[in-house]
């Protein structure tokens, strides 16, 4: 494996049209941060580059919906995203934005370089155009019926019902999202990057030179290459974005997929100026792209083709892309608000940044989609962070204060338990280093926790609370070893749990830690005064996670209401037929469940002329039927009597179907005499 002098880490640029959620974190930002922190601990030269993607149609759609400018949208969400990342300890060296002047200049110059070299082809095609709005329609500005599944609300780039990728011209009965009109086809010209030109070089570079890439990344690239690459447009008709910097390109901007990855370069320039070439063009620099699986093609095929066409930039050495994280067994969806938003988590769980980092890493979707549940979040916190890691550190510090006044005792001759512990920690260190070197962060976290388990086992076996009764010299050796073990844990967990690590380092009176220190058992000198014991993690109660689950359930109900559509109107009936139905108001005197029936309720109704019994199949919508007693409700009075469960029903209760399928009895909104007709 080639040795490099430095490492450049880039992270996918989140769209600045909404906040960051746990899917983004698990897929991209937490693993990238773990790796960057690991390299820094090793003393390596590393830059971690991030930023907001502030161009593209999703931004303009959001702005139009809210009646503000696209700049208003990106300013708002860029700040929310940036602050959220800082709150979680994502250690970017720079977090920039694609609306910066540096980016506009860098992206324009990149395009112009390729244009002047003749790397683009110009093509004319027919695209959908809204005559009233007087503009070409981006894919997301077109809706219609999916030709594959019949979904009437498919977008011009994808049907969210069946997941099929589409072209806007594929839609049946397309409509403009701007005016609701049927668009027309109109001729327009754009520049295209001929990806097919780089097909053979990409095959050599990926399929032969990078067989070590993750199977999901390698497999997706192989599939695209086997299908044969096609030219891809680098411009589009839009008024929000970086103007195409050539004459005659008025009203056209750089396509966001072309513009966004150049943001890695421009953000580096904002950080280091002209020194950016060391990070982007020196062959001694290794470049890594941390992304989600939806960005694999752009970072392994499209962006490398751009860099090949330009000619002076490095290509990525690895693209450790993750799969998707689901939430409570359902796909995370921004449009459905089905997500755990980072900025909300930081507000609702103050001081628990590391808990989220831990759970997302433990459930990292490294090779396949994985799932986040609040119950698992609680269990991992209580059973692992509190009961294993926190428990060991707390016992070691508490016992040192109890028996030695908080002063680290000098160790005597090490016995078999100490030597075995040191050997195990050094073995785990080697395995942990190998896991992190190969981007196996979930495995790395497990190995770090195994170190804490080893510490707990050591204390259980040596029992310093017993040796303190007869052998303080032996107790001193045990607790010195335990404190050294705490120092080792502060190093092993720093890439994963930086807040805990910093707290522990401070508690032990330490300063700078390095990866080379891991496995050493002389990190805290004898005689050093350690801080008072302080819990690193606290138990999360059932009520806390129940509140989060309820929040999601409320979201699901709200989505059902938004998605609900009434049943189609039944065929017309003539007035004479309608007049035959006698709908009246009755007062409920009694209401109870029918024995041996899950569906039936038995009503006793006062109908103005006496009483009548009516059975209704709405029991599953009313857990406590007594809530209906005393209410005035509507019923069909001349419904032919019929027997059910041995009881004669003399009418039909009128009820409405709710979006969730439950039924609600309907009645007058004000006082009405029983027996009054409804007409």
Please characterize this protein's 3D structure:
- This protein is α+β, with helices and mostly antiparallel strands and 679 residues long.
- It folds into four domains: 6-113 and 257-331, 3-Layer(aba) Sandwich (Rossmann fold), CATH 3.40.50; 118-233, Beta Complex (Methionyl-trna Synthetase, domain 2); 373-563, Orthogonal Bundle (Isoleucyl-tRNA Synthetase, Domain 1); 575-678, Beta Barrel (OB fold (Dihydrolipoamide Acetyltransferase, E2P)), CATH 2.40.50.140.
- It is 41% helix and 17% strand.
- It contains 20 helices and 26 strands.
- The strands form eight sheets. Strands 17, 18, 19, 20, 23 and 26 form a six-stranded antiparallel sheet that branches. A four-stranded parallel sheet has the order 3-2-1-13. The protein has a four-stranded antiparallel sheet with strand order 5-4-9-10, with no helix packed on it.
- Strand 14 and strand 15 (330-331) form a beta hairpin.
- Helix 13 (374-404) packs antiparallel against helix 19 (542-563) and helix 17 (472-492) runs antiparallel to helix 18.
- It is flat, with a radius of gyration of 33 Å.
- It starts with 5 loop residues before the first strand and ends with a strand.
- The mean pLDDT is 94.
